[in-house]
Amino acid sequence: MQLRDGNHAFHGPPGTPVRRRVPVRWWIVGMLFVGSVVNYLDRITLSIVAPLIRDEFGLSASDYALVVNVFLVAYTFSYGFGGKLADFLGTRASYYVTVTWWSIAACLHTLTQGLYSLCAYRFLLGLGEAGFFPTGVKAISEWFHPRDRGKPISIMLLGLGIGALLGPPVVSWLTLNVGWRAMFLITGLLGFLLLLPWTFIYRKPEEHPRLSEEEQEYLQESAKAVQDDTGQRMKVRDFLRYRGVWTLLGARSLADGTWYFYLFWMPEYLMRERGFSMEMIGGLLWIPFLASDLGLLLGGWLSTFLIRRNLGIPKTRKVCMLGGTLLVPLGILINSVSNPYVIILLMCVVFCAFAIWSVNVQTVATDMTEAHSVGTLFGMAGCAGTIGAVIVQSLIGRFIDLELYSLVFWLIGTLPLAAALLMLTVPIRKLKHPGGNASGAKAAG
Questions:
Q1: Using the 8-state DSSP alphabet, how is residue 402 labeled?
Q2: Which SS3 state, helix, strand or coil, does residue 306 take?
Q3: In terms of C-beta density within 10 A (0-12 exposed, 13-18 middle, 19 or more buried), how is residue 224 classed?
């Protein structure tokens, strides 16, 4: 009898079924996926029960807008320091901190007594939730070869779409059966269930006790693929020396507002301007989010396929980003067609295309820096994207007040394409620590 410790098989006596073993790195991706689902579920609970809370505490629409903006401001701030926290604490500890923080904040919603307490709890929630994603990208950069990172990042981001699909039925059912206060407590407690599995699953690659021979070889190959690493963690000011970083920040600030429009404004637009009923919203609006999930998977798998066909990481990222955003302007037609099913179809195309852009532009952070600094760069990019989104949402609100929906759809339809064209102007490559290369700033171009 021959036994072999490998990623894929253990061979026993002839005729014995082969038992396949899931590599450790994919268990880690699974934990990041589940974390994303819970993260998004805790985020959207308020939007579903907002009418009940507004009626109970007498909150106006402006009051509710303040609650939303408080969350976005905290989310922006958290993206900024969340990456630095991940690089400083390390991936394992940062996961504990962010999940615990946002779970406590989600549970606190059950104690809401009015506008100011609700604002405080949403601010705390925003601080915790955004920091999770730099942590996840850092974990992937530690465990995956550069050519393979698009796929696991797409799976992590897929959790957001699954959370969008599960949120309305789960939150509605809990609210109807136990009330909105208990609903916040139950959904908030879900995050704590992630901590124990993470304790057993995650270690740094060089410290993990349960690696197979094949996975050790894979990680060694991944380590050899990392070049020009000085071993020095890069700070925000180090990244800002490079034109490529400024280009990434600019692209995210242009494009992210499009997704927030579809997320926050489309249900109201469909009901007020296109005659959708609440039943139609509930029965049809989940379909574009499913298309978004498929786009995330397609974006990750396609990038990995092209890289493995020797197209190269920089060209692959640019092909996928531009290819996705070329379809986003089809959303402009939503304001012109009358058939509700055509509207949903157009939304599906836009959601899928934007997801292809999203997974690839977010993976660029892992292409441009080493694992010890990727959280900082990813957080900077996310912060820029949220700041840009706040500005775009302000413009959208003004345009809607003036009943200029056609201008709104032209704006959100063209900004992602402009962002992709901007990304074509710079090389996507590893950045050298300025302290380790005197000409680093020149290399930035």
A1: T
A2: helix
A3: exposed
What range defines the domain where residue 192 resides? 24-203
Query: Is the residue at 310 inside a domain?
Result: yes
Same domain, 191 and 314: no
If asked whether residues 56 and 155 sit together in one domain, one would say yes
Interatomic CA distance for residues 132 and 116, integer angstroms: 25
Query: Which of 419, 412, 344 is CA-nearest to residue 381?
Result: 419
Show Cβ contacts of residue 378 under 8 Å, excluding neighbours closer than 6 positions.
83, 133, 134, 137, 138, 362, 365, 366
128 and 251 share a domain?
no
pLDDT digits (tens, 9 = 90+) for 56-73: 898 775 676 677 778 888
Does residue 224 sit within a domain? no
- Sign of the CA dihedral 62, 68, 71, 76? negative
Give the three-state DSSP class for 250. Answer: helix
pLDDT tens for each residue of 211-237: 777 877 777 777 666 554 445 677 778
Q: Is residue 254 part of a domain?
A: yes
370 and 415 together in one domain: yes
Number of domains, the chain: 2
Tokens standing for residue 237:
């000011």
Tell me which residue has tokens 């904040």: 105
Beta carbons within 8 Å of 373's beta carbon, 6+ residues apart? 87, 233, 234, 239
Instruction: Clarify whether residues 119 and 166 are in a common domain.
Output: yes
Q: What is the pLDDT of residues 179-218, one digit of tens each?
A: 889 999 999 999 999 999 998 888 877 777 777 778 777 7
Q: Pick the residue with more confidence: 403 or 356?
A: 356
Tell me, yes or no, whether 348 and 402 share the same domain. yes
10 Å Cβ neighbour count for 21? 15
pLDDT at residue 228, rounded to an integer: 45
**Residues 237, 172 share a domain:** no
CATH code of the domain in which 164 resides:
1.20.1250.20
C-alpha 190/C-alpha 176 separation (Å) is 19
Q: What is the pTM of this model?
A: 0.70
**pLDDT band at 434; cut points 50, 70, 90:** low
Kindly report, residue by residue over 92-144, the tens digit of the pLDDT. Answer: 888 899 999 999 999 999 999 999 999 999 999 988 887 888 888 888 888 88
Does some domain include residue 424? yes
The span from the CA of 131 to the CA of 125, in Å, is 10
Contact residues for 402 (Cβ-Cβ < 8 A; gap 6+) = none
Residues 6+ apart with CB under 8 A from 196: none
Residue 213 CB-density burial (10 A; 0-12 exposed, 13-18 middle, 19+ buried) = exposed
